[in-house]
Each structure stands twice: as structure tokens, then as C-alpha cells.
Amino acid sequence: MASKILLLLLAVIVLIGCDSQSQSVSVDSVPIARISPEESIDSQIESFCGACHGVPRPENFPKDRWAEEIEQGYRLFFKSGRTDLRPVQPSSRVHEYYRQYAPERLTITQTPPFSSHDRSSGEPTSQESTEDTAWFLRRDFPILVEDEPLSISHICWLGDPSQQPSSAPDFESITPATKVSHEPALLACDMKRGHLVRVSLEDGTPSQTEFMGRFRNLAFAEPVDLDQDGRVDYLIADLGSFVPGDHSKGRVYWLHRDAGDQWEKTILLHRVGRVASLETGDFDADGQIDILVAEFGWRETGNLHWLRNTTTDAGEPRFDAEIIDERSGAIQIQKCDLNADGQLDFVTVLTQEHELVLAYLNDGRGHFTPQTIFAADYPSYGSSGIEQVDFDGDGDLDILMTNGDAFDDYMLKPYFSIQWLENRGTYPYTHHHIADMQGVYRALPGDFDGDGDMDVIATALLPKRIDNPTDFPLHSILLLEQDGVQFHRHVLETANSNHATLEVADFNGDGRPDFATGEFWPDSKERTLSVWINRMQGYRTTQ
């Protein structure tokens, strides 16, 4: 799903100070929480920075980057309007501290093409191998407008849901049916020029395209029968700009058929910041489809919205907008019933300085209580996506998480990786590191080898500019094959970290999960979408 979606797209910004809407406040006007001069500089930094988010570590950036990061942190603090904190002064003391302990450069080590990670110990073992190209057959498909390729931010499968890996329970008993399309096709969003495209598949091969509408800067689209007329509609998340910024151009659209069977656009939410994603479901148990909206925003904009369905005429949906969380940086929302009470909850990931995975538990009347599933230790973590899945087969939903967003500071990080957040019935979840991957933007589960457990496909997206490039090619598509104890790393593609989105489904109906990728940077006129057909020999399909 949903990826991210995405998330240059969203350009998560490293924030060291506090980020909320308000006017500037001078240092001299801040009266509270003075720091004792006897307090050590590291304690002062922890008290000041840690009041808003995880405390930045010196090893998060090389020496020559800390002046810029510290200046940004102070600037954002003064814009926040907080009066309960006293910043460490002078700021040069903070700079000296971080420069003293920071490395000269961030070292990125090369991961062998075939390696594994023991889930219990987290210790890697490696074997020499070559790039694995025999497992999947790649079929490329160009999508051009005025002879220029699209910039793909999101793709989703429109076919039979039974042809996708089961990663979430069936909600039919507690929410109206929201997805009605069972056509063998992929829906693709173009972020740069705003095209929404349906790509038909024949035996897993892209065959023809339908341009369904043009918006501004598409981040996400979701099939849904919003007016319950038996025909598929689409909900659209529109960022409102390609380049990140604070503005009010974000929108949520309802794309539906009019009386003449033509596509018609209806605005459901506007005058908000950059909208990254959304989710549908009956969150107040009134029998109508509501919409949760992830308004990523940027530095001074961004909220989690609930569009409560108040429709009285089925042909004209009406919604009341409420804010669930005023923090910026939400990039995904996925519904669930985490406490098995029959009410729809949801999970989301907040980026920016927050770097949180949160559960919002629903009391059944539309009141949500947040619980922390995961909190990163520092604000430059680069969270890029989540996916719910019962990863260990114990009957509850875990989280597959990625952090690889380098669009904030154009730097590769030693800690960019894929993780499993294990649900053991308490908060926060138990964190497991699965694999390192530079620029990892999306990871999805699937039993790609037919052995009964969940493997992982992961893709990478990096900016054109990288300030600490490596002298070896980076892995851009990985298959992490689980054998019950370890994850074996299979490299499917290198040196093309150009994938903001990923989808997994059985595209050709042979019982094996395949996957599809999109190209974000429009560099090739030969390849906009790629379908990767699983042709593993000896696959033990249950169909």
C-alpha cells in the first residue's frame, strides 16, 4: 500500500528543535526551565532537545554537518513559540560538543549479495554469491505523456484481494465494504504532473492504459465504493506541490462516475498542507464509510484528520472534518482491530522530528487513544513506511517498518534498514532488525518461496544528490527469504534506487506472489512500471 508512501515525496526533514505553529520568540523572552550553569553540556542538551524528541547523537552526522543542523534546530525552536524551555546558550557550545564527538564521515559498509540475519541474535552471517536474477522474470512497461515518462509515487493492485498475501484480518463484520474492484489491473499515481492511470494486465503483462484524471501532485489513491452504488470510486491524496513546503494546497478528492459514466472529481478536503495518504473504514460504527487523512504538511503544517461521514443522501457524500493529532509528518494510515474489541483502530507513522509508529485505539464512539508502538532514539531516523502483517504466525498483527529516507540531508546512514516490530500484547512492540538497506522506502511481505512463512520484498529510493556516495553499487531491490530462523538476502537489482512504491499480488494467477515497482525519477522512456513474475521452481502452492 501505501506507500511513503513515498516519501521524497514527503521529504522528511531532520528537526533538532521543536516544530509547531506559532510566532517567533526571542531567547531573552523565554522565562522558564533555566539550566544550572553547573549542569554538564551533555545534560543540558539532553534536557533541551529531549523535551521534544529523541536526543540527536553525535554519530548521526559527520563533523562538517553539525553547524547546519544546530542552526536549523535553534531556528525551529524559536519559531515554535514554546516558553517552557530555555535553550542552551551560546549555541556555539552545542556545536563544539557535537563536533568533538562526531565522526569525520559516516561510513557505509558494503553488504555481501547473499547474507542472513539471525532473528533472535540479530548477528549477521554472510556467504559469497552473485546477484540473483533467475527467481523473477521482469516485464517493463512505459507510460508516457507528451513523450515524457511519469513519476510514479504509488501503485496498488485492483484485482482480487485473495491474490494478495494475507497481512490483515477481514473487517467485513465491522465496516461497510470499501473496495469493490476485482479487475486485473494496477493503479498508478504520477507525483510530478498529477496523472492517475489504470494499467490493465493480461497474464501478468501490462497491456493497455486508461488515463482517469489529472490532479496536481498525486501521492496516493485508494479504490472504494464511497456512495455504495456498486461501482468502484477512488479517493485521492494530493500533496499540492512536488517540492516540500508549508502551504494550503493539499487536497483529498473523490473520483467517481457521473450520470454519463464519465469520471468526475469532488473535493472532500482542501486548504490543508501536503496530503500523503488516507484510509477508509467505519470508525464510529454508524454504518457509513469514514476517511482518515494523513496530512504530512511540512514544518508548520500537518495533522491527522478524521472525515466523519454525515451523509443523508447516498448520492452526495458529506463529511465533518475533525483533527485527531496536531503533529505533522504522518505518511501512512492502516486500519486494524488491535485489541479485538470489534472496533476499528488504526496505526500510523509520524516522521519529521517525531519518528514514531503509533496505534490509535478506538472506543467505538470515535475517540482515539494513542499508544506508542515504536519510538526512534533520534530525529534523523528517516522513517519511510510501515505495513501490518502477522510476521511470526502467532495470530496477531506485527509491523514491518523501513527507515531509509535520505531526502532531508542527502546523506546515506549506517542505520538505514528494515525492521520487524513484534506484537507481544504490550506497548511498545519488540524491535527486531532484519537487514540493512540504503534508501529503503518500501517493504512488503509475501511467501515468495512457498515454504509457509513470510518473506520480504524491499525497494529503495534515493535523491539524485548524495553527499557521502559509496564506491560500490547500492542494492535497490532485495528479497529477504525467511527460513524460520534467518533471513537470506537475495539481490534482485542494484544501482537503481528509484522506487518510491511497491505492490505484491499474484498478477498472473499461478498461485505464486509476484511484485510490481514504479520508477520515481522519470529517467527512462522504456520503463515506468515493472512487473516481476515469480518463477521459483518447486514452489509449494496451496491453491
> Which descriptor suits the 3D outline?
globular
Indicate the structural class. mainly beta
Radius of gyration: 23 Å
Oligomer: single chain
What's the arrangement of strands in the largest beta sheet?
Answer: 2-1-29-28-27-26
Under the CATH scheme, the architecture of the largest domain is: 7 Propeller
CATH class of the largest domain: Mainly Beta
Describe the overall structure.
- Residues 1-24 form the signal peptide.
- Residues 108-132 are annotated as: Disordered.
- This is FG-GAP repeat protein.
- InterPro entries: FG-GAP (IPR013517), Integrin_alpha_N (IPR028994).
- Keywords: Signal.
- The strands form eight sheets. This protein has a six-stranded antiparallel sheet with strand order 2-1-29-28-27-26, with no helix packed on it. A four-stranded antiparallel sheet has the order 3-32-31-30, with no helix packed on it. A four-stranded antiparallel sheet has the order 6-7-8-9, with no helix packed on it.
- It is 7% helix and 38% strand.
- The protein is built from four helices and 32 strands.
- Helix 3 packs antiparallel against helix 4.
- The protein starts with 6 loop residues before the first helix and ends in a 9-residue tail after the last strand.
- It is globular and about 70 Å long.
- By secondary structure, it is mainly beta.
- The chain folds into two domains: 41-101; 136-534, Methylamine Dehydrogenase, Chain H, CATH 2.130.10.
- It has helices spanning 7-10, 41-49, 66-80, 91-101, and strands spanning 114-118, 124-127, 136-141, 144-145, 148-149, 152-157, 185-190, 195-202, 205-214, 218-224, 233-238, 250-257, 263-272, 275-281, 290-295, 303-309, 319-325, 330-336, 345-350, 356-362, 368-375, 383-389, 398-403, 417-422, 430-436, 440-446, 455-460, 475-482, 486-494, 502-505, 514-518, 529-534.
- The longest helix is centred in the N-terminal third of the chain and has 15 residues, at 66-80.
